[in-house]
Structures are given as structure tokens and as C-alpha cells.
Amino acid sequence: MPKHHTETYESRGHIRTRVKMRKGEAISLCRCWQSKKFPLCDGTHNTLDNDRGPAIIKVDCDLDFLDPGAD
Questions:
Q1: Of 3, 45, 60, 63, which residue is most buried, by most CB within 10 angstroms?
Q2: Each residue of 24-38: b (16+ CB within 10 Å) or e?
Q3: pLDDT tens for residues 51-61?
Q4: 51 touches 36 (CB < 8 A)
Q5: Whole-angstrom distance, CA of residue 62 vs CA of residue 69
């Protein structure tokens, strides 16, 4: 996993995690809900009796136009 910055905060009563990444980097998001690093995948799904692997998110362009403070 690439070096990244993770920030968890509350917004409108919901816990949110913001991950800042650079072009070419990718992260895996947990879909089994059992990861000890949730919302990031830690591979726990491999020990479960289901077919849920992670959602893999890859940055393939520069997104300087996005407002980093937007919800």
C-alpha cells in the first residue's frame, strides 16, 4: 500500500475517513466489515467463508480541482 494520510473526523453525525493519495497510488477498502484497519482492508476476508474481497481504488489522474474540504 502506498504511503498515505488518513484523517478520521465527524461530519453531520457521521464518522468519515479521508485518505489523501497521489496519482498512481491505490488502496483497498474493506467490504467484509471485519478488518481491524477498517475502512481499509487488512486481508481478513481471506479467512472468512464468503466471496467478498476488497474494493480497490486507484488514482489515475491528477484531481487538483477537487476541494479538499468538501464532504
A1: 45
A2: ebebbebebeebeee
A3: 889 999 888 87
A4: no
A5: 17
pTM: 0.66
Residue type, 38: F
CA torsion 39→43→46→49, rounded to 10°?
Answer: -20
Any bridge partners for residue 37, and if so which?
A: none
- Please give the grid coordinates belonging to residue 19: 485518505
What one-letter code names the amino acid at 25?
A: E
H or E element that contains 15: strand 14-20
* Domains of the chain listed by start with CATH number: 22-63 (3.40.5.90)
Q: What is the mean pLDDT of the chain?
A: 79
What span, in angstroms and rounded, lies between the C-alpha atoms of 37 and 53? 15
Closest CA to 61 of 29, 25, 30: 25
